[in-house]
């Protein structure tokens, strides 16, 4: 299974005017199984970029190619068979069960006038087991916690048998335990050979297991490359506007971590 | 608002079969009951007399009551009940909102205006059906055109445009009522708007039947895909669905089915909003089962209510009044129940 991604000169704006563009001239390439971590301040267009890559939104110009095949020339159903998109969150007006939601990932392989077959249901069960939520199959989705929802959405994307998985802030609203569980799942999927593009608010996620990191800022990809080289204290300051120390932790962890430095007079709150 | 999951006592397929049996019983009871009560066995014999050679033990009048008066009316009740319920369930799915009724896009208001216009100028049953049908479709076309932005039709814009178009046609209908002759035409308009299956004949049904069946068949064919739209358009697109086309197919079929229902029966409220709720309590939210069971329950319910409408008092009660009188408390009960469950 391959999964090479080439993104060339991708631009998007909600109107045709140049000055209204959300971002322009984005380009990067990923080898099969690589993890790309997309960072950037709030409102910098991370979600919009992911939606453009997955064709939920149509880019103004540029191209996305998977294994050399340009998505511009592909039907939505064919794209959904190569590329899975996991939204930040999803709300359902109706209490579908987890298995009913997960099997929806098969939609692009089910004809207009039929419903999921036994094989489709089998595939849904398989990906629920893989993600470790088999026990939730009959649970109505209005009784899921935030972490469970995120796992359900990942399981649903896996039923598409994707080569590429796009995740939009998969750990937002989750407690630390659930954050790490999701990140471990993402890591194991990349080891299975799925190429991953993940938007995140935490530079630490990039150090954790990203092969490449990109920072989206001022309508373009400010920097991209290997996390150790890209995420310097200067770059983090110019991205988030606060001082962040990057510290290397040894002791068997062997990873860099980010530590925000608070301004002195604000660090203790109101009380002396 | 959240609604509890399905009842687990039987599988969805079994529930659909159970309600089909209920439907047959309701139809048979409705054939027997009325100004004259006809014995059950005799009714059955009359019903099968065109296909089986049976010795007639009934009078001409009894035969005519069953076959020419009650049967077409019951058929109309089945079609209208099924069409409003399946359209309601489909609209609720597409609009991601369990409180939506099939009249949301202004069909009823448009069809009502068309009917009032036809009563005023033609007073011919065929013209009433035709013009009200056309105005029902025209009002939804207006709603659709009004809600187009950036080559897309967002659901919220559709709903708001539906309200605008609906109130425009309601106002125009009021204008026609005000202008109409108060002795003659005005009561006819008012009575038509309250809803009734009184003026349906086999001939009318013959023309509307294929339209009903075609629309309901389309909705049944694409019914699993309504699940996808009910998760939101953006989400459905990310799963590889051409949402604009799918939405257009569903809205068009549900609209034509609703317009056909309104043009032969007048405005019958509450069914399209209440029956899908009952269906969801029984088989859960999966539209694969929700659409068939809503059709079956809706058909049985409307025939039952129509039987009450023509038997309870010496004069007939407009059916729209009855469905509202029954519908409001039942819906309130369902709301309370679903709130407690979640």
In a nutshell, what does this entry contain?
Chain A is 30% helix and 26% strand. Chain A has 272 residues and is an alpha/beta fold.
Structural description of this entry:
The complex is a heterodimer of chains A (272) and B (342). Chain A is α/β, with parallel strands linked by helices. Chain A contains nine helices and twelve strands. Chain A has one domain: Rossmann fold (3-Layer(aba) Sandwich). Chain A has a six-stranded mixed sheet, sandwiched between helices. In chain A, strands 2-1-4-5 form a four-stranded antiparallel sheet, with helices on one face. In chain A, strands 11-12 form a two-stranded antiparallel sheet. With 342 residues, chain B is mainly α. Chain B contains 14 helices and no strands. The longest helix of chain B has 35 residues. Chain B starts with 11 loop residues before the first helix and ends with a helix. Chains A and B meet through helix 2 of A and helix 9 and helix 10 of B.
Distance between the termini of chain B: 9 Å
Fraction in helix of chain B: over 70%
Q: Which residue ranges of chain B are poorly predicted, with pLDDT under 50 across at least 5 consecutive positions?
A: 1-5
CATH topology call of chain A: Rossmann fold
- Radius of gyration of chain A, in angstroms, nearest whole number: 20 Å
Name the helicity range of chain A.
25-40%
Query: Got a strand count of chain A?
Result: 12
Q: At the first level of CATH, what is the class of chain B? A: Mainly Alpha
Low-confidence segments of chain A, ≥5 residues, pLDDT <50?
Answer: none
Percent strand of chain A: 25-35%
CATH topology of chain B: ABC transporter involved in vitamin B12 uptake, BtuC
